[in-house]
Amino acid sequence: MLLCGCTQSTSGHVGSPSISYTEPPLPAGVAPAPTDRSTPAPAPGGDCGDPTASLRPVSDAGTPPSPTVDAIRARGRLIVGLDTGSNLMSFRDPATGMIEGFDVDIAREIARDLFGDPERLEYRILTSADRERALQESLVDVVAKTMTITCDRRERVAFSSQYFEARQRVLVVKGSPIRGPAELAGQRVCVVRGTTSLERLQQVAPTAEILTVPMWSDCLVVLQQRQVDAVTSDDTILAGLASQDPYLEIVGDSMGAEPYGIGITKSNEDLVRFVNATLERIRRDGTWTDSYNRWLSMLGPSPVPPAAVYQD
Hints:
The structure is a single chain. By secondary structure, this protein is of the alpha/beta class. The protein has 2 domains: 67-163 and 261-299, D-Maltodextrin-Binding Protein, domain 2 (3-Layer(aba) Sandwich); 166-257, D-Maltodextrin-Binding Protein, domain 2 (3-Layer(aba) Sandwich). The protein contains 10 helices and 15 strands. The chain has helices at residues 2-11, 67-75, 102-115, 131-136, 151-154, 196-204, 216-224, 235-242, 269-285, 287-295, and strands at 31-32, 78-82, 85-86, 90-92, 99-100, 121-125, 142-143, 157-159, 164-173, 188-192, 209-213, 230-234, 248-251, 257-260, 263-265. The strands form 3 sheets. Strands 1, 9, 10, 11, 12, 13 and 14 form a 7-stranded mixed sheet that branches. Strand 3 and strand 4 form a beta hairpin. It is globular and about 60 Å long. One of its GO terms (cellular component) is extracellular region. Residues 1-70 are annotated as: Disordered.
């Protein structure tokens, strides 16, 4: 019986399982940019004079007629398009669950002037590629989402006056041999679809192997997983990514200016003028500077808010 038991134990022995290692999965929605770029991508912006020139502000919703502003007030809330993956600009605070950031502060000030209450907001989460469609289909009242004012975009949507000037730069893991735009040639670079950052990257580094993603937080993931060599975007966005990982750094000179405006449906001129009145107020009363110091001080001392340019 003892022998039989030993034999049974031996025959029932299971060896150690084999272990295999695989590449981490890519985030959903990742796709390579087209590799056939024999015809250079158009430079961001086009030519329409000064694209940041907007409509002169009117703060009194009764003069001249303001159908869009009146309808928003009757609804009781401002519908804002943004995302929750742009740390420092618009993100969900994990401690409070609240959506916060520099762009959110701008939206709150518009709501303050509309209702006397900065909390009268409803958020619609958008990818960068969805911003124009959301405005054209009136799914949102405004887009406050690091939206660069360009001549091309102004053909489809309206913009407020400029409220921030970002600079496109490069984000890498500390110790990377990439020290700026000149080293992006032939490298794997992450960028979000539907952005001026993608257009400029195709101009500056046409031989780069470009991986496009829906959200900037996806670029953080693939950089941390070493599936790309660099990320390029506005310094505001890159600062938000770097703030989440001490092993990342922003390098190199600016690849170009990115003037931000609030996106508005093209036909809603009264809302453009109302938003511009809010932007004039926050430039004057220190609200803009307070918000910069709260969210973006890692970019350096607070600059002077960009001066508005008006076309009328």
